[in-house]
Amino acid sequence: MDFKTLPQGRFTLRDVTVPGCVTGAEDDLVRTDIGIENGRIAEPGGEDVQMAGAMVLPCFTDMHTHLDKGHIWPRASNPDGTFMGALTTVRNDHPNWTAQDVGARMEFGLKCAYAHGTARVRTHLDSMNGQYLRSWPVLAEKREEWSGKIDLQAVSLMSCDRFSNTGEFTEIAKTVQQMNGVLGLVSYPVDGLKEILTGFFEMAAAMDLSVDFHTDETMDPTSETLRLIAEVVLETGYDKPVIVGHCCSVSTQDEDRAMSTLDLVAKAGMKVVSLPMCNLYLQDRVPGRTPRGRGVTLVHEMKARGIPVSFASDNTRDPFYAYGDLDMLEVLRQATRIAHLDHTETDWLKSVTSTPAESCGFAAPGLEIGDPADLIIFRAREWTELFARPQMDRIVLRAGQAIDRTLPDYSELDHLMRLS
């Protein structure tokens, strides 16, 4: 685990530990050998590198981030830790979001994700009030610059009450279409929501766009937009990928009602992404009161119904989440604790690797012969060792060679924090 370079040509990582769910084995963890040749996984052979049981995982997929918001906390901190405090603070900071500002913070975030072992990222981009004219071109530049390191997708972010078949929303949708993006919407209870959703899905279908929602990001049990989205998908016959994120309120609803909603979600073929760290930070926060709810959605019940469930980073060092570093191992570690992923199925690793990749339409290589040797190696030999420590000494291989894992220094962003 202390090697800085690997042999050139063909070599074998001898005696590694891999999750059975990645290789198709029935066992939870398997000790094996992994051959690497010409940057791809191959049959064992060539020079041996002894690994002493070190755990090897495929690179991560982070399917719900906000690269455009990332790291504004020093100039735009949440005044009270609440959702409304976050929303108001971000909106007040929007005048600072020039192409230069957004680009520098996106670059910082991508450097962090890459160093931690992420190969695929989907980011939501605030698009209202003309922001799409600044942020989407920057996204296109970053997608090109990071090609071969991180596959990058983008989703437009706009509130459901701003939907219209004319005006700015239509222009945003055209931009999304031109840039091969995903049409996004934040859904919450407003008058006429069913008509809004119907129009939204009709627009997406006509423009051949998949969709991605922020859904029921509240602990209010009366918020049932997840259920309504599923009903509208079924009624309209929309047949492209539908991703719904957060889905917090279903965890607070009557059991029978919640389960019937999940049945509709499964029937509609929707895919769910849970954001456990951000939701734990924001939800059920009341000054002077200890929080009772965790904010996480019903991931076990969803998975039991065949609904693809993923976990993702969400926000990083912005008013919606003051912490985070786009480290998907941290996400999986915290999700395991928050949502009790232990003592259940042994394939939850897929929720941060292949499941989000497949949900977003990314290629999802694993550890099969011929797959790119894009791997993360940890000193840990089993799950409790992996989750007990941050694993900052991990080794990330891309095309079979260790990358420089030096994280960017926060001081690189100091010049941006003087904006007003």
TrEMBL record:
An annotated Gene Ontology molecular function: cytosine deaminase activity
The keyword Zinc belongs to this UniProt entry's keyword annotation: no
Residue span, Amidohydrolase domain: 197-394
Annotated keywords: Hydrolase, Metal-binding
Biological-process GO terms, alphabetical: cytosine catabolic process
Superkingdom field: Bacteria
Keyword Hydrolase: yes
Protein name (database record): Cytosine deaminase
